[in-house]
Amino acid sequence: MIEQTLKEAKFACRAMQLVDKDTKIEALKKIHDNLLNRMSYILSENDKDIQAARANGMRESMIDRLQLSEARLQEIAQGVLDVAALPDPIGEVVREIHRPNGLLIKQVRIPIGTVAVIYESRPNVTVDIAAICIKTNNVCVLKGGKEAIHSNIALAEVMNEAIKDVLPAHVINMVQVTDRQAVNDILNGIGLVDVVIPRGGKGLIQHVVQNAKVPVIETGAGLCHVYVDKEADLDMAVRIAVNAKLQRPSVCNAMETLLVHKDVAEEFLTKLKPEIERVQVYGDQTALHYLPGQTATDENYSTEYDDYKLNVKVVNDVDEAIEHIYDHSTKHSETIVTENKATAQYFMDALDSACVYHNASTRFTDGSQFGFGAEVGISTQKLHARGPIGLPEMTSTKYLIYGSGQIRE
Amino acid sequence: MIEQTLKEAKFACRAMQLVDKDTKIEALKKIHDNLLNRMSYILSENDKDIQAARANGMRESMIDRLQLSEARLQEIAQGVLDVAALPDPIGEVVREIHRPNGLLIKQVRIPIGTVAVIYESRPNVTVDIAAICIKTNNVCVLKGGKEAIHSNIALAEVMNEAIKDVLPAHVINMVQVTDRQAVNDILNGIGLVDVVIPRGGKGLIQHVVQNAKVPVIETGAGLCHVYVDKEADLDMAVRIAVNAKLQRPSVCNAMETLLVHKDVAEEFLTKLKPEIERVQVYGDQTALHYLPGQTATDENYSTEYDDYKLNVKVVNDVDEAIEHIYDHSTKHSETIVTENKATAQYFMDALDSACVYHNASTRFTDGSQFGFGAEVGISTQKLHARGPIGLPEMTSTKYLIYGSGQIRE
């Protein structure tokens, strides 16, 4: 049971809400400094995780995600300073209403409260989330993966040591147990947890969505589409498709399905072929005329590969592309490539995905690429936050109403 | 199983998203006209519900909520025209970002999608919600109480008849079965229901929060506080306290607990006494010196009475008032009465309730009193919507990103 941790976190929200801008910046600078000062301790704790991972036969690509180094820690510490320098959203007046009865109503940004984040192996998430939460006066409850437990406990300890004289107690809370029960306590924390954000694979996200009784921000599922229209600049379309698939296939904003207008299928796919030789293609009959590969099933069209695999489908028109996207997309990011602005706008208006592009790669769906400076994840749900989650999305609001004795008639 | 209804609703979102401003206004006017044209039919169906309610021994105050009349239907129809006349939030550009690489990023308001509302006896909710959803390009799934089933089916039928040549099919969906299974289908409708909003008593709201796997906007729980500071204008404090408790005790923005600074307890409570003779007081020892009543327990302080009952507690200072509110409030509405602006601002900054007032009655927490023109309910959760839910809160956003061939390096 981690109920005590959740209660301490919720209680800390009261004091944390009143911490001012400069104190938050001071706290973040102290975290930066202490991460550098305590580098050897953090690296030695990280090494315990790495050794355990090797002993358990973890894949090298996963060990790479887990491993810290001096250079990585410097980067992580710099990230904390970057968050400190961002515009502070707390206290911002979102709306001001003057009522005929003299009431002045101000809607202002406030912290959400207790933000619980459940994540997997990367220990940098521990520091990123803590920094973003401090900047937005939130209190965080961090539940990392068991593979990174020594690293995460060390990072939280070093951060808490840094802020102990500056911020209220229990602002950064690391869950030190690694069992599923701790996750379930968070998901059932009505009244204690204001939001839970899962960061990780599909299994984790589904578990949270299916079981949380507290509000969730769903992130990260990315089955993204590129549609090459009959009026596309085909060289541009090749560049965009290759970038969307191959610049970093493992991430959520990479393309999984390429839709091609039938009028340009031959020319476009012939141009594309030499650029995607490393990619396993799942295509419809027409696509497989021009590209080697296997016949695509509906399961292919519904799979987020995050890998060197790609679905290719030839469509009759933009409407068929839109229908296909509605039927298979996770509503993350979609692109149309066309020189026809009206067709582009129609595609952009008709879809309801978080990010819809005209003539650009889906790979830009990212907090830093949007200029947000920091990112908690990419929301693919409709409520509260959509697309990259930056600092404003980590806030709630309240109304302050200034009167002079008004009563309701 | 109402899965078919939910699928039809979800599919209707695609076409509904593209309906323009004028068409929505036309649809709402047709609903207004048809509600008046079909008045006798609606009233005869309503009469079936009234007769069933009488046969089942329903209280007269509940029957009053259920009953329609010509005058009430005219008012309901006028409400539809009022919604039609409100500013249209859909398509509004919330934010525009120009990136150094030439990308133009526009965040625009879009509909949420499928909005499911589960409510109790008042049939006017059927029309209010349908009108608000049409104005915001949302598709609604309405699940009313079984007491109002004939009225609700008739109202939905009359509205659907009105819009059949103007809007896509299945934009207004009335769930015609009255069993709990229909509610559970909605709560489990992952991928089909974008948000569920419960409107009704505590039991309904708790059931939805505990069981929904789809996103919820929690509404309506209102345990509101008035704090009378030592520097209050005591005559103003009496007016505000009386208004907050007695102007309409049955609603969520009425006061349940009165907190009084010890320095003014005697004078204030003596002034208040003759004004609240109809009210059952639960007080602490000091309060009961000046007011007749019973000793308050922690359970009293945690109860939303919605009735002629009031907790009264004498506190040592504003901090004790703030602590009491944090420990017992549903985060709906709280008021401080004081002439000291610094004390007022401290109280307003320290609390995180949806609405915090200075020198005004809590009864103003209401969409129409805020100037929103229409209201779906009062959100007491931190995510997405806080306080009165107006049209902008019934929207989501998406990013439209305009490029000229940009790819990520």
Automatic annotation (TrEMBL), chains A, B:
Keyword NADP: yes
MF terms (GO), sorted A to Z: glutamate-5-semialdehyde dehydrogenase activity; NADP binding
A Pfam family reported for this protein in Swiss-Prot or TrEMBL: Aldedh
Main location: cytoplasm
Keyword terms, alphabetized: Amino-acid biosynthesis, Cytoplasm, NADP, Oxidoreductase, Proline biosynthesis
Catalysed reactions, semicolon-separated: L-glutamate 5-semialdehyde + phosphate + NADP(+) = L-glutamyl 5-phosphate + NADPH + H(+)
Compartment annotation: Cytoplasm
Biological pathway: Amino-acid biosynthesis; L-proline biosynthesis; L-glutamate 5-semialdehyde from L-glutamate: step 2/2
Sequence ranges assigned to domain Aldehyde dehydrogenase in this UniProt record: 2-282
Signal sequence, renumbered to the chain: none
Keyword Metal-binding belongs to the record: no
Any GO CC annotation of this UniProt entry: cytoplasm
SUPFAM superfamilies named in the record: ALDH-like
UniProt enzyme class: oxidoreductase
EC number: 1.2.1.41
Biological process per Gene Ontology, one example term: L-proline biosynthetic process
InterPro entries on file: Ald_DH/histidinol_DH (IPR016161), Ald_DH_C (IPR016163), Ald_DH_N (IPR016162), Aldehyde_DH_dom (IPR015590), G-glutamylP_reductase_CS (IPR020593), Glu-5-SA_DH (IPR012134), GPR_dom (IPR000965)
Function: Catalyzes the NADPH-dependent reduction of L-glutamate 5-phosphate into L-glutamate 5-semialdehyde and phosphate. The product spontaneously undergoes cyclization to form 1-pyrroline-5-carboxylate.
UniProt similarity note: Belongs to the gamma-glutamyl phosphate reductase family.
Name of the featured protein: Gamma-glutamyl phosphate reductase
Gene: proA
